[in-house]
């Protein structure tokens, strides 16, 4: 058949070009013929003006901390097809390639995934839900960390919560099991001699409504912590 003849001509042309045996050249062409097309980037239905809303973080904030607006981050990550990567790889790339600190590398990654439609606000890539909240306090890092690690101090702003601290690294991080068996990760960052930030990620939540409620809960508790530290 003409199709077979045409294919044989391609095989022989490849043999002349590469010096391969007939069977090798044929196999290589067949592999190319049946190789799946590269996955296209998921459609980004929003315009650049909508990126901040989808990402859940303002252009001003992300540019101040990373040097780029959301539009520039989307272009940079689309250029390497980051939409096809797992979450961890994107965050590592942002951190290593662009020297973005860990927390903000995660923020860029999550924002990009939301913009590309890979997750909703409050949702992880695996479909589970989480709530995140952060706040800067005008106290030294050690004092902020102690407000979480010291049982008596913690009870003043987080009362009646029988939580379990699984792991803790002084002045840096803490992993907690909440009474309902959901998981809380804390990160602590020095922002100056007398200024520090806590970042909260409360995961394994059942749905978006729980994510919204939990985010509001942490906003209220951090306000209470501010009163205690004052």
Please provide a written account of the structure.
By secondary structure, this protein is an alpha+beta fold. It has 3 domains: 8-34, no CATH class; 48-115, no CATH class; 129-229, Alpha-D-Glucose-1,6-Bisphosphate, Chain A, domain 4, CATH 3.30.530. Helix content is 51%, strand content 18%. It has helices at 2-18, 22-34, 51-55, 59-66, 70-79, 87-98, 102-115, 141-149, 151-157, 208-229; strands at residues 129-137, 164-169, 173-177, 183-192, 195-205. A 5-stranded antiparallel beta sheet has the order 1-5-4-3-2, with helices on one face. α1 (2-18) crosses α2 (22-34), α5 packs across α7 and α6 (87-98) packs across α7 (102-115). It is elongated and about 85 Å long. It starts with a helix and ends with a helix. The relative contact order is 0.10.
Q: What topology, given as strand order, has the largest sheet?
A: 1-5-4-3-2
Number of domains: 3
Rg over CA atoms, rounded to whole Å, is: 25 Å
Shape: elongated
Low-confidence stretches: none
Distance between the termini: 86 Å
Assign the CATH class of the largest domain.
Answer: Alpha Beta
Percent in helix: 40-55%
Helix-strand makeup class: alpha+beta
Q: What does the largest sheet look like?
A: 5 strands, antiparallel
The CATH H-level superfamily of the largest domain is START domain
**CATH arch. level architecture of the largest domain:** 2-Layer Sandwich
């Amino acid at each position: 058949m003409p199709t077979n003849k045409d294919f044989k001509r391609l095989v022989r042309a490849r043999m002349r070009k590469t010096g391969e045996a007939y069977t090798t050249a044929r196999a290589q062409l067949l592999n190319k013929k049946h190789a799946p097309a590269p996955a296209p980037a998921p459609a980004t239905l929003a315009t650049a003006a909508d990126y901040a809303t989808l990402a859940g973080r303002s252009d001003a904030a992300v540019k101040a901390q990373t040097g780029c607006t959301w539009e520039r981050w989307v272009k940079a990550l689309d250029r390497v097809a980051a939409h096809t990567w797992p979450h961890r790889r994107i965050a590592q790339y942002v951190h290593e390639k662009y020297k973005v600190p860990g927390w903000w590398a995660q923020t860029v990654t999550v924002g990009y995934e939301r913009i590309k439609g890979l997750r909703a606000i409050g949702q992880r890539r695996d479909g589970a839900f989480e709530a995140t909240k952060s706040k800067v306090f005008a106290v030294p890092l050690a004092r902020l960390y102690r407000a979480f690690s010291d049982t008596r101090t913690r009870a003043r702003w987080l009362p009646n919560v029988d939580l379990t601290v699984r792991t803790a690294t002084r002045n840096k991080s803490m992993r907690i099991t909440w009474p309902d068996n959901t998981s809380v990760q804390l990160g602590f960052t020095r922002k100056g001699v007398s200024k520090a930030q806590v970042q909260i990620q409360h995961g394994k939540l059942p749905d978006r409504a729980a994510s919204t409620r939990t985010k509001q809960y942490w906003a209220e508790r951090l306000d209470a912590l501010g009163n205690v530290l004052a």
